[in-house]
# Entry
Amino acid sequence: MTKYLIHGGRPLHGTIHISGAKNAAVAIIPAALLVDGVCRIENVPQISDVTLILQILRELGADVRLVNRTTVEVDCSHIRNRQVPYELARKIRASYYLVGALLSRFGWAEVPLPGGCDLGGRPVDQHIKGFVSMGADVEVRNGLIDARVPNGARLSGGQVYLDIVSVGATMNIMLAATLANGMTIIENAAKEPHIVDLANFLNSMGADIRGAGTDVIKIHGVARLRGGSYSIIPDQIEAGTYMAAVAAAGGDVLIRNVIPKHLECITAKLVEMGAEVEEEGDSLIVRRHGPLQRTNIKTMFYPGFPTDMHPQIAAVLCLARGTSVITEGVWDNRYRYTEEFRRLGARIQVDGKIAIIEGVEKLTGAPMEACDLRAGAAMIIAGLAAQGTSEISNVKHIERGYEDIIGKLSGIGADIRAVEVPDPEQKAAPAAG
Ligand code: UD1
# Structure
């Protein structure tokens, strides 16, 4: 199995390039199911979640062609199968987008309940509420979501008020409504950049979606979508993660291929904490030379501070002067990283949805186990800022969402490498036969 070995305590210097957004890619690729013809998708991040979603499309009968490192062509004109394989779907949260896409195109979908990071209860009731309001019968049984439109008809436009602002439900209902008869209105919609990106992708293929990026989205169903080309936006959270890494380890880094507007909430907090952030077109220069200062953070929906930046910012605050408070406003179970941070000497207490962090002078390297994607990234940041050697295991979580994180960090002077070690669980297993 792979571990990451980090010798920390070195400031970071150089240039880093941000890849396409994971959370946009894992919705836009399934959205190709709605299209009659070839979708050329550019700026696709090379991460394991994307590999999985492409594999699922292949299993369904799509023609998937990798044009180069970041461009893929997907042709779903000849889909044979509408049942998504359990072994693949359970590994990825975004497999739920296949329900909206298949239901919209074929009026029927059978998709295993999604997997992904364990961040507490991850219900899909708002997705289902949306499909039902468009005329689908939806049943959750034997670990599957079975959704179908009676009599093989198309979905019809509906009006959906989301009880909870949900990124996944907003995008899924948008997918389902694209080929429905009539107009669908989503109220209390989420506004994240990847929602706008999915709407732009669908519109560029012939859909009629207005209002994405506001809390009311109107989708006029169209008869068909045609093929075309689209480039995915840069990853807000990947960029934020490297910004946090510079703040924690110190140094001076040019972060290229970003949309600075998407990073404003992260920039504002890092500046409060003593970093400098300078905008230069589609790049940001992040510097930190002086001491880090405390701050308070509450995670919420866009344009608020993203929950997916919570553990990374906590890593920085472990080294800030004074006491900081983080309030998690989205997930129930985002604090599993705290136990690992304590091994490095961090002083961090959790009470319900609140973490209280008393900054310390220094962290000291230690072994840590990644428990989810963003927690894993935060452990890398803590390891880079700590004195001595840290070792991070269970890095498959990190590889779900960060393209070539070792190469990118090495390129800005971090001493980090991947090492192969024997899996202790395999060693302990009784010999076969
Ligand atoms: C997406 C992101 C994830 C991010 C999250 C919040 C992807 C693949 N994942 O997850 O990285 O942390 O947005 O920004 O894009 N909820 C319900 N019922 C539902 C749906 C959601 O109660 O039907 C609740 C959830 O339990 C959670 C909150 O709503 O408390 C937000 O969830 P949601 O925005 O749907 O997150 P995801 O789309 O799963």
